From TrEMBL:
It comes from Penicillium angulare. SUPFAM superfamilies: Molybdenum cofactor biosynthesis proteins. This is MoaB/Mog domain-containing protein. Residues 51-231 form the MoaB/Mog domain. SMART domains: MoCF_biosynth. GO terms for molecular function: FAD diphosphatase activity.
Amino acid sequence: MLSRLSQLTRHISRPLARPASPILSSPSLNPISNLSAMTSAAPTSLIHTAACLIIGDEVLGGKTIDTNSPFLAKFCFSLGIQLKRVEVVPDDEEDIMEAVRRMSSRYDFVVTSGGIGPTHDDITYSSIAKAFNLKLELHKPAFERMKKLSRPHPLQPNFDWETPSPGLTAKLRMVELPFDPKIPAEHQAVFVADDMWVPVAVVNGNVHILPGVPRLFEKLLENLKPALVPRLSDPEGKGTFRLMISTPLPESAVAPYLTTLAEKVESKGVKVGSYPRWGKKRNTVTLVGTDKELIESLVKEVEVGVQGVRVSKEDELDLPEADQVYSQ
């Protein structure tokens, strides 16, 4: 699998060594034009919630550590989107189909990660297509960009893009995307980076299919942001605000007060959290929400309630390690 990820990384991303050719300048292939079209004509429903589906036997088998869902969590937090669910499923058609259908029906913004490479176990595109009764079709703009931007493998010196071969068949697997004839093509695949041939495929209006290679996943997601911001409840992108208060009290001592506080502010969109810090003398209480002014107004009350003080990072008031004694 690691060799497959390396192969996918090599094929998907390649810096442009020269000015864009006429192919990259054409409207159908220009990533900025494509993204703008999607932004201006995409569905207008607001994005409040998100879900992430990590696909891959290697994650469930402990061979690969998932870093994409934590990245997506921070990405959503910064935009004020509530990430409601993260799941990991194997490279199994039925599992992928069931999970993606369920997530698409329940959440506004669904992101999948993994399973879109050139080998037999990369079945994400075909499984998601089947989940929504769609067919796979060769995405010609992606294929043209692949030919333009892919580096030839040193062990395939005679590879020819125009001659049928097992190698070409494997590459084509990565640009055969789910296609819905009832939806404009520009809403179903969007190029967001001019040095990457892989598009973000969009299925059923809210399922966004991304590669599992972390640096590709992160770059595509960050560059997708302009298409998402207009659909946020806060289009200015202020995101979610988190405030931390450090307390010397054990969780059992602050629990009654925090329970009362949570009941009081839940209807106002503020979540109260309590986090023990094992081996440390101080624990952390958090206030999280999109209304920064409201959260700021609660600081003094909470500081008194938990006998604590506001901090910018959890370990700000920690004593030297030798003096730390934790009590819950």
